[in-house]
């Protein structure tokens, strides 16, 4: 099912970034969003296992860190604990909004520990990732997969200007469908 192919009107990445910083300044005082370091991988794996059924071997996280480290961010709580992450991959693929091959920033995984949700960290992590995918990797689009039942994540992505492109039937191992969502950059 194709939802749309025309280029949507979306908020600019810089606007999203400034807005995210303002939200974090109000709702997440003392928290930091910063580029991930290799020593964060342990915490990232733990958060991934706690928050999502889609888990991966350590080498998968390390490969993304080594290859696309500039778009791998973590959220650090006031005490220094890593409580969220976003990791991405840069791919050449047919564009969702252009027929040509484009450089697309794939949001591979994002999660925030339950007790730290609802204060703008998901928004902040995504804003950092989008800005970096555009500025550091020259991506002209970004896309992701999300469970059709994952309302919090879908709302977050729509707030960031992602639109539903199509449904990928039985995308997940348990049989649930995914929405493919994408937006142009910047
Ligand atoms: C999705 C997730 C990363 C959001 O993180 P978060 O830090 O709680 O998100 P934020 O506080 O930055 O919220 C940003 C926006 O997301 C949406 N959102 C977040 N939580 C929501 C909820 N419980 N219900 C509905 N919308 C929600 C809202 O649009 C919100 O904006 P608003 O506060 O102006 O309403 C977090 O819920 C999570 O880790 N979930 C488990 C892992 C997961 O599902 N990852 C995505 C896989 S595709």
UniProtKB/TrEMBL annotation:
Residues 31-186 form the N-acetyltransferase domain. Gene3D superfamilies: 3.40.630.30. It is an enzyme of class 2 (transferase). GO terms for molecular function: metal ion binding; protein N-terminal-methionine acetyltransferase activity; protein N-terminal-serine acetyltransferase activity; protein-N-terminal-alanine acetyltransferase activity. InterPro entries: AcTrfase_RimI/Ard1, Acyl_CoA_acyltransferase, Ard1-like, GNAT_dom. GO terms for cellular component: NatA complex; ribosome. Its EC number is 2.3.1.255, 2.3.1.258. It catalyses: N-terminal L-seryl-[protein] + acetyl-CoA = N-terminal N(alpha)-acetyl-L-seryl-[protein] + CoA + H(+); N-terminal L-methionyl-L-glutamyl-[protein] + acetyl-CoA = N-terminal N(alpha)-acetyl-L-methionyl-L-glutamyl-[protein] + CoA + H(+); N-terminal L-alanyl-[protein] + acetyl-CoA = N-terminal N(alpha)-acetyl-L-alanyl-[protein] + CoA + H(+); N-terminal L-methionyl-L-leucyl-[protein] + acetyl-CoA = N-terminal N(alpha)-acetyl-L-methionyl-L-leucyl-[protein] + CoA + H(+). Keywords: Acyltransferase, Cytoplasm, Metal-binding, Ribonucleoprotein, Ribosomal protein, Transferase, Zinc. Belongs to the acetyltransferase family. ARD1 subfamily. PANTHER family: N-TERMINAL ACETYLTRANSFERASE, N-TERMINAL AMINO-ACID N(ALPHA)-ACETYLTRANSFERASE NATA. NCBIfam families: rimI (TIGR01575). Homodimer. This is N-alpha-acetyltransferase.
């Amino acid at each position: 099912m194709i939802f749309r192919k025309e280029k949507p009107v979306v908020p600019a990445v810089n606007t999203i970034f400034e807005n995210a910083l303002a939200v974090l300044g109000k709702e997440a005082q003392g928290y930091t969003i910063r580029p991930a370091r290799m020593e964060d991988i342990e915490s990232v794996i733990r958060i991934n296992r706690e928050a999502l059924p889609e888990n991966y071997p350590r080498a998968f996280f390390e490969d993304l860190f080594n290859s696309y480290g500039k778009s791998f961010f973590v959220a650090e709580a006031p005490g220094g604990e890593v409580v969220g992450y976003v990791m991405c991959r840069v791919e050449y693929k047919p564009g969702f909004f252009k027929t040509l091959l484009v450089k697309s920033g794939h949001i591979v995984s994002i999660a925030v520990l339950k007790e730290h949700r609802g204060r703008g960290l998901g928004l902040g992590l995504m804003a950092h990732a989008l800005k970096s995918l555009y500025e550091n990797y020259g991506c002209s689009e970004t896309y992701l997969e999300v469970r059709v039942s994952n309302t919090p994540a879908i709302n977050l992505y729509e707030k960031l200007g992602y639109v539903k492109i199509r449904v990928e039937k039985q995308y997940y191992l348990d049989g649930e469908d995914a929405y493919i969502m994408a937006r142009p950059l910047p």
